[in-house]
Amino acid sequence: MTVPGLPMVVPEAGLPARVRIHEVGPRDGLQNEPRTVPTEVKAEFIRRLADAGLTTIEATSFVHPKWVPQLADAEQLFPLVAEVPADLPVLVPNERGLDRALALGARRVAVFASATESFAKANLNRTADEALAMFEPVVTRAKDTGAHVRGYVSMCFGDPWEGAVPLEQVVRVCRALVDMGCDELSLGDTIGVATPGHVTALLTALNEAGVATARLGVHFHDTYGQALANTLAALRHGVTTVDASAGGLGGCPYAKSATGNLATEDLVWMLHGLGIDTGVDLGRLTATSVWMASRLGRPSPSRTVRALSHQE
Amino acid sequence: MTVPGLPMVVPEAGLPARVRIHEVGPRDGLQNEPRTVPTEVKAEFIRRLADAGLTTIEATSFVHPKWVPQLADAEQLFPLVAEVPADLPVLVPNERGLDRALALGARRVAVFASATESFAKANLNRTADEALAMFEPVVTRAKDTGAHVRGYVSMCFGDPWEGAVPLEQVVRVCRALVDMGCDELSLGDTIGVATPGHVTALLTALNEAGVATARLGVHFHDTYGQALANTLAALRHGVTTVDASAGGLGGCPYAKSATGNLATEDLVWMLHGLGIDTGVDLGRLTATSVWMASRLGRPSPSRTVRALSHQE
């Protein structure tokens, strides 16, 4: 249901004028997809996202194909989208992955650390410090080539094994990533349990540890419906980089139709209502998510996509 | 997935210490339900909601059964729940409905006005002013009996026919309801299009027109995923009455699995994370919504219910 003039644009004092959306749909959104998505469909997805105005589109991951079979076609995909007019960061877990990415001309890479021992063990089979040690040469070499490096930090707010994560534990990992040269951090609420006061407290603690807000992005999951409220808290703190996934792609492992990632469309609806510039055309973006949903064979979990498309 | 210690409690400055949740599930949540829900199931739903700690539970509606067949059993239901330890407001559209409600001992009633002409016409077959004129004797008589009167105002932010709704139009209707004696107003974002700056602007405009924040409740729909972010904006403005529907009951007419109302569980997750007292036991509330979902034969759209129950 598209109604001209909606959302009504009413700015709120103290919020940024512009937000850069870091679109993670093609990577984070698809990585757990059980059926193999054809490489050409992924490339078309990325092209359409750029057409919709997204300027940062995380394209794929150069992890070992054994760990993420869905993204095993990174070498085939990346050349197909090289001409897309957007920044196309890629995940690199180690030096081998970095080599593969750089060989294809990647100019933005991302490493993925964990704020908790349990998740470092589960995701990387290392202690948190071992994982940081693994990333250090990756970041150094990437920076030496002039690449932009993002550091993901998972489980910044809660962890399914450890519960609430102490702020100082997150700060320590973030500080280490900045010290090794990361240009930007993405603070992940991997299980979606954060609430707005917790977001503000973590951002404040990071500032106090010398990590500037300009270096911080937020990556919220909507598992408990909190992602957009948490985003609002981050915007109030001055954050201008927000991760989101077109159509809300990227489900929880235990709930097929529940969302994992904050849906880009729901984010754009709020930002545009607040008069915050994103450069995104919401109609085109929604059409892209509807198209992708048809390729995946199930409806988008994004509420805005459903409302605008009558998709059911 | 229940994890002890989550959400982590981190208060945020400037928010209220306590919020009263006005639970609308049994009325707003069920009113469009196509299959008739047995009266005893409705009564049990209300009892379980009270057991979960909700203190205001909108029980039913004394509209003409022709308009809302699902709530045609109001006369049978109300006596079944009379002993439930909670306030049980009921909708009354006119003097006939008020008579029926008062005869059964209702002590809290609600009238429902519209901020737009289009919705007044569609919902009440009257102009907005004719609807107000219809409510005036209802409110006066209810107040004379000592009842508490809530005034719902629909379409406070956007209207599917008229688009964005000017603030002054909402203020005029709110002012009229307060002048005729309403104790409390509920500002409805009936189609879920509001964003946080718009919420703040409307609350400010109402204050400037002499309507105190203490008299204002908010009623957000999650059609575009904005309900909780909008609630956060309202809390920052000082609002302490928030409408929500257990399990997110009350769907959009055009999207069966999309939510209409803000889910009480998603709201409680945020409020408890912020250290705001609600009196609600989230585990019991979730169990109630899972039980009700089993009665209705489809999963709850609340993300928190899904996450906590693995319901799919």
Automatic annotation (TrEMBL), chains A, B:
Q: Which GO BP terms, alphabetically?
A: ketone body biosynthetic process; L-leucine catabolic process
Signal peptide stretch:
none
Recorded hits in SUPFAM superfamilies, A to Z, give: Aldolase
* Molecular function per GO: hydroxymethylglutaryl-CoA lyase activity; metal ion binding
Q: Report the Pfam families cross-referenced here.
A: HMGL-like (PF00682)
Q: Which UniProt keywords apply?
A: Lyase, Metal-binding
Pyruvate carboxyltransferase domain: which residues? Answer: 19-286
Entries under InterPro entries matching the protein: Aldolase_TIM, HMGL, PYR_CT
Question: Which protein family is it in?
Answer: Belongs to the HMG-CoA lyase family.
Q: Which NCBIfam families match?
A: PRK05692.1
Q: Spell out the protein name for this chain.
A: Hydroxymethylglutaryl-CoA lyase
